[in-house]
Amino acid sequence: MYNKKIIQHFTNPKFFGKIKNPDAVGNAGNPRCGDLLTLYLKVDNPPANKTKKITDIRFQTLGCASAIAASDMICELAKGKTLDKALKISFKDVSKSLGVLPPLKIHCAQLVTEALRDAIGKYKKLSG
Amino acid sequence: MKQGAKIYLDYAATTPIDKKVLKAMAPYFSEKYGNPTSIHSWGQEAQTAIDKAREQVAKFLNCKSSEIVFTGSASESDNFAIRGLLKALKRCKRAGEKIHIITSQIEHKAVLETCYDLEKENVKITYLPVGNDGIINLDDLKAEIIPETDLVSIMYVNNETGAIQPIQKIGRLLEEINKNKEHRIFFHTDAVQAANWLNCDVVEKLGVDLFTLSGHKIYGPKGIGVLYIRQGTPISSMITGGDQEWGLRAGTGNVAAIAGLGFALEQIKIQDTRYKIQTEKLRDKLVKGVLTKVSESQLNGPEKPKERAPHIANFSFRGVEGESLVISLDQEGIGASTGSACTSRALLPSHVLMAMGLSELQAHSSLRVSLGKYTTTREIDYFLKVLWTVVERLRKISGR
Ligand SMILES: Cc1ncc(COP(=O)(O)O)c(C=O)c1O
Ligand code: FES
């Protein structure tokens, strides 16, 4: 059912865990089916003329193997990116980077992009 | 346990074919390949095999062989029992007369989806609830019976929790009610998960009219089922064509599978309780091991060991999702299953666990472990060790 890449990110995720004082926390999930996802972000503080970047990112995911793999993948994709670039990461990017998720699992990739957008949205609101 | 050993703990999903069963089937592929309806010796050879199997089934159920119909699966048997009965009943009902079926919320999809489908044809269906233990309440059943009630369909053993339903008591209750009722209430039970363990004397003990069995849960082949139809029960064919199976199920008989199913049933010795006791011991070890080793774990289903079939145990673990749990176990060579929404096409958690009052999250984190005749103590020990590691790993990832 799953390809090697998905299994690899599921078996050895690099980005799971919490960040101690995160600059933003994003949530997503479908409480009806029980999936819950949290992303923690650290954002740098560059001079005013430079754009802000995600310096660290971690996830905690209660969900299927795809959701865990997709969480790990979105962290990999978002780390080092500017906030605006990170906002543009789509579920298709996540799916493609994992060598395409099975059709029934696309919503797991949607879930992780939602969590990232939630986190960035909250950060932007807070920092005005 | 050796490195790379594979441990199958999903016997409720399917069982391997017993070597002796396979041997009993082997001649009917390319040696004795006749069509059982042919009148020459090739045909007679095949027909003899079917006759023999039918007798083996009849002996197991303590009924007449003329009351046995072979089908293509237990799902087909369930469909046939319900739809076939209704079709026959409709023909003798007056216009506008209602049809009413009582079933339960925890039936196998083969029964439930059939009932949902029939609702679209204006059949009234009542879905009985179950308690936290996953067992229906006889008083609930009694309360739902109305003059129009035609059929009660309740499974013998639930396939997710192993909860044993009070089939014998329902049989007696319906017998009493039928004495004073204008038309009879027929009684169907899906006994697919019970056949290895419980009394299947359909006439004397259970008092059922329709009884479903499957080949592949009893160390026999897949794609073969049985429907027992008590003599005198109205039923119409759902697959029309040739006059095989008393004209009730057309299609050339699957001779090898039929022979295999008959032989597999003959191997089951319900009276010999040694195997049952041995499996119950293994199950109790499993349950105790899981609950003591894995923190914040729970057993789903009846608490009393007597109320559960020996081969199934269903658990939930806080902070773990079932699909990732099953995949992680598989990576360690262990096969089990889950009622998590993440494994269902509709993204809905197990209807059985939900009917028992579990929360979505509890159903989401469920694991069904089912044992069989090749399960060993060492396998259970190994499973317990691996389970703990895997649950801890997934809890770290979920942080919940
Ligand atoms: C209780 C019950 N009924 C019916 C079935 C369906 O059996 P079959 O695969 O033979 O259609 C199963 C097995 O999945 C079952 O556990
Ligand atoms: S998280 Fe539920 S299906 Fe992927």
How would you describe this structure to a colleague?
The complex is a heterodimer of chains A (128) and B (400). Chain A has five helices and three strands. Chain A has helices at 4-11, 65-78, 83-87, 91-97, 106-126; strands spanning 24-30, 35-43, 54-62. In chain A, a hairpin with a 4-residue loop joins strand 1 (24-30) and strand 2 (35-43). The radius of gyration of chain A is 14 Å and the shape is globular. The N and C termini of chain A lie far apart (44 Å). The mean pLDDT of chain A is 94. Chain B has 400 residues and is of the alpha/beta class. Chain B has two domains: 7-17 and 272-398, Aspartate Aminotransferase, domain 1 (Alpha-Beta Complex); 19-270, Aspartate Aminotransferase, domain 2 (3-Layer(aba) Sandwich). Chain B contains 14 helices and twelve strands. Chain B has helices spanning 19-25, 27-30, 41-61, 74-92, 109-119, 138-144, 167-179, 202-206, 255-267, 274-293, 322-331, 351-355, 360-364, 377-398, and strands spanning 7-8, 68-71, 100-104, 124-128, 149-153, 186-190, 210-214, 225-229, 297-300, 312-317, 334-335, 366-370. In chain B, helix 10 (274-293) runs parallel beside helix 14 (377-398). The radius of gyration of chain B is 22 Å and the shape is globular. The interface between A and B is medium-sized, with 26 and 26 residues. The complex binds pyridoxal-5'-phosphate (PLP) and FE2/S2 (inorganic) cluster.
Q: In this structure, how is the largest beta sheet of chain B organized?
A: 7 strands, mixed
Shape of chain A: globular
**Spatial strand order of the main sheet of chain A:** 1-2-3
Largest interface, C-beta within 8 A: A-B, 26 and 26 residues
Shape summary of chain B: globular
On the 0 to 100 scale, the average pLDDT of chain B is 96
Major sheet size, sense and barrel closure of chain A: 3 strands, antiparallel
SS-based structural class of chain B?
Answer: alpha/beta
The figure for the number of domains of chain B is 2
What is the mean pLDDT of chain A? 94
Query: Alpha-carbon distance between the termini of chain A?
Result: 44 Å
Distance between the termini of chain B: 31 Å
Provide the gyration radius of chain A in Å: 14 Å
